[in-house]
Fold these 2 entries.
Entry 1:
Amino acid sequence: MILKAQRGRGSKVHLLLDDEYVITTDVDFWAENYIVDGSEIDETEWNELVEKINYKKAFNKCADLLSRRDHSVKELRDKLLRTVDKTSAEKAINKFLELGYLDDEKFAVSLSNFPVLSIPQPTSVKPHKLINNFLFMIPSLYFW
């Protein structure tokens, strides 16, 4: 099998196997794994390369999601499985657990400290709306 790289938008690199598109990665990954464009690659090397690409994709997605807010392990796994395979998702989750960026206990504590916004509070009723509604009802009571 002959592996070729084709430049995409931005920092993307499209990998073609025997002139057929297979997977996309980025310039940094391509440079890290220095493979000569147009080189011969066997099935095991190809599978290792795809596994590395998928792990990097899972790792970057995990970092992106955790940069926005804390997640539980299950929640993060479910989101990762939408875009990557199970083994890559598990490896990325384990790496973030090891680094301390993912912690179910910390997530539970932060969730328990979050104010519950969906329960209506008595202060959310606007008194002027009640008065206006009541005033519109008065003429119908006395003049009809």
Entry 2:
Amino acid sequence: MSNMFFGFDSSNINLDISFLNTKNVTNMSGMFSHSNFEKIDLSSFNTEKVTDMGGMFSYCKSKEINLSSFNTKNVTNISYMFSENRELENIDLSSFNTENVINMTRMFYYCDHLKNVNLSSFKANKVENMELMFFWCYSLLNVDFSNFDINEVKNKSELFRLSSLDATNDINGNQVKIVKICSNSFDEFKKQISSTNAKIIIV
């Protein structure tokens, strides 16, 4: 299914692919890359044999993506998965099992409208590359890294390299805490998050 809907111009079409049998699929890389479905619901997908999801939604224009049923236990590559999706604001990946993932490079690269990301289930025990994973995600407000230990990752350079943000006192009435972080201070970052109830902006 690699590149199956690549470049599909379908802004006025309600995508329904619930009839697809994906139980034997191993490669979904680039599947929706450069497409412009407003909503993508893959809650019916069986992904238990998939190993490659690299660039699956890269450069697409989907505002809503439902991956709630995804079984990612055999996936090794999620690099560029949402890279340069500039419409996406919220993504819940709390169901993801990343215990076999090796490559997370540029997973959310240039997702400049992304505000909320739930990675609470993410583990990095086999990950070798996380370079530029959140580069230019300058709209981020809430990121859940609660179980994410990246100390053993070989390449995590510029993991949180984001554009500068205006150090305002509040956003829509919510307290904001400005956190400056470099790629080698992830433990300190987690300490700062746990010490406040404020929303977090990383700069």
